Amino acid sequence: MQGSVFTGINYFFRGMMLLKTPGLRRFIIIPLATNILLFALLGAAVYGYVSQWYEATLSWLPDWLDFLSWILAPILWLLAGLLTGYVSTLIVLILTSPFHALLAEKVEEQVTGEPVPALEGLGAALLQLPRGILRELSKLIYYLPMALALFILSFIPLLNTAAPALWFLLGAWMMSLQFADYPMDNHRLSFRAVREVCARRRLSSLGFGAIVALVAGIPLVNLVVIPAAVAGATLFWCEEGRQAAS
User: Fold this and answer.
1) Is the pLDDT of residue 15 over 90?
2) How many whole angstroms separate alpha carbon 91 and alpha carbon 97?
3) Labelling 83: which of 44, 213, 218, 235 has CA 20 to 30 A away?
4) CA-to-CA distance for 152 and 145, rounded, in angstroms?
5) Among 190, 187, 225, which residue's Cα sits nearest to residue 209?
6) Where on the phi/psi map is residue 218: left (φ > 0), alpha (ψ -120 to 50), or beta?
7) CA 24, CA 107: separation in Å to the nearest integer?
8) What number is the average pLDDT over the span 42-57?
9) Does the reported pTM lie above 0.90?
């Protein structure tokens, strides 16, 4: 059984609803505050860069092409917003990984009613920061060869028509692995084991990863993506992953 795309999508929205639970709120504050601060700093930097580039572009456009400014401006700001959202999310994931593991632990305990023999408190979570960074780097190492292959494919005639869809599928797969890793790492599963579990529930994994990838690119909305995705991935682990891992 590979699960269901719609079940995977629903995990994310169920995870978002779980964030309202009083016992979980304190594990969201630091990652959320970090994301807001980083998004604001990156947004200011990108705003300055895009404004300069936009003005420079308009300066050499002939008068009869002035109408392009109405097309160029929304496209530029949309791309800038998406880029800021993705980059800030990536950096926050690396810097605050112990807090996500702690949130996954508390969500699992609340859903299953069983204790998770993982992190015990905030102090223990902070001590896991170096290990968490190494874990994030292992995901990056796994991702880069596939991204490079797709980048090359994007320049091959005919084959490059499939590139946009393949980029999206790769993004969805990586988002699934990224967040499913937190609850599974709490049970000391290797990253290889995480990939195997997600592969056994591929449709659910891709559905979950796809909705996370889409929402992560929406400015401001993306501020709550990380905790919602952690909670949703924990639901996936509780309802499908544990069975697939056994």
Assistant:
1) yes
2) 10
3) 235
4) 11
5) 225
6) beta
7) 7
8) 69
9) no
**pLDDT-derived band of residue 37, with 50, 70 and 90 as boundaries?**
confident
Per-residue pLDDT tens for 84-129? Answer: 656 666 777 777 777 788 889 889 998 898 888 765 555 555 556 6
pLDDT value of residue 147: 86
Q: Is the CB of residue 25 less than 8 Å from the CB of residue 19?
A: yes
Look up residue 235 and give its amino acid.
L
Placement of tokens 């779980």 in the chain: 18
Q: What is the spatial distance between Cα 66 and Cα 41, in angstroms, rounded to a whole number?
A: 32
CA atoms within 13 A on the CB side of 165: 4
Q: Which residue has the tokens 């028509």?
A: 161
Per DSSP, 21 falls in state -
- Find where tokens 């797969």 sit: 173
Q: How many CA atoms lie within 13 Å of 243's alpha carbon, on the beta-carbon side?
A: 10
